[in-house]
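Note on ligand handling. Small-molecule inputs were canonicalized before submission; formal charges were left as drawn, and no protonation-state enumeration was performed. Where a ligand contained multiple stereocentres, the stereochemistry in the source SMILES was retained. For zinc ion, this procedure yielded the string shown in the input block below.
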Amino acid sequence: MTFTTGKKHIRSFISILLSVIIITSSAMFTGCSDDEANEWLNEIFGMLDYEVFGDTVEGDAKLKMHVIDVGQGDSVLIQCGESNVLIDCGENGMGKTVLDYLRRAGVSHLDWIIGTHPHSDHIGGMDTVIKSKDLSIDHVMMPQTTKEMTPTTMTYTEVLTAIKKKNLKITRPVSGTEYDFDGVTMLVLSPAKSAKYEDLNDYSIVLKFTYKNVSILTGGDASKNVEQQIISRDYDLSADIYKVSHHGGRDGNSQAFLDEINPKYAAISVGADNKYGHPKSEILKRLNKMNCEVYRTDLDGDIIFESDGKNISVIVAK
Ligand SMILES: [Zn+2]
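Structure output:
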């Protein structure tokens, strides 16, 4: 009896030892075969193969923009050095997708979480992200709407509750305000202080990020009317990368606004076969005519732009 138990112990000891050897050697093998410099990409894309377009970015690619595939909605992560800014979190139910992406990207701290405007395809998943115990957050930015326009939806209430429970205060965007972190300047282009609109989309926070010679412009869902107001404020709107407004809708993305931005790359966050017919073909034509390279989450999945402040590369799954 004792002998048998002893044998069993020896057997299980040997099998544990073998497993340890196999796991260790396979981990070493994976470690050797992976391109060390792109380990973070392997982490994000998991089992998927990815391909790189655009310029070759070598060395210190401090700036990264991730357009996270959340279907019909928006969620964009901008990273520079140790700083992370998350703009929108997709629909209700997409919070987990965003949190999972942040985990894969190694993000456990957000300098800013920004809800561009209180529609569910932008702030739906925001309460889940804010509530996460794995994430510390410094600042929240959301637009101030008029009393009549303040949403009474469950989605909005849940976001406000999550903000309160995490003891965070809401910063209101004011056009012209600049925030600096890790070499990046984040400039608020819209809305202006005490702006009054009749459409919630028009309250969208529009931002421009500049790192060395590279800049990114992120639109929410604002219309042509707001784009005209932004142009009239005389900012330098030129940007290398443009997160297309309103999922490629034609109420925004006016030719005049696109001319000011003159983007080299555009990213459209949009769901496959969505009921709105986004992105609109005339917007795609406009961008193509400008020789702008367009990437779409419905076709490309997650889209990553990486830059050293001069060159830009685009990374998508194959
Ligand atoms: Zn939207």
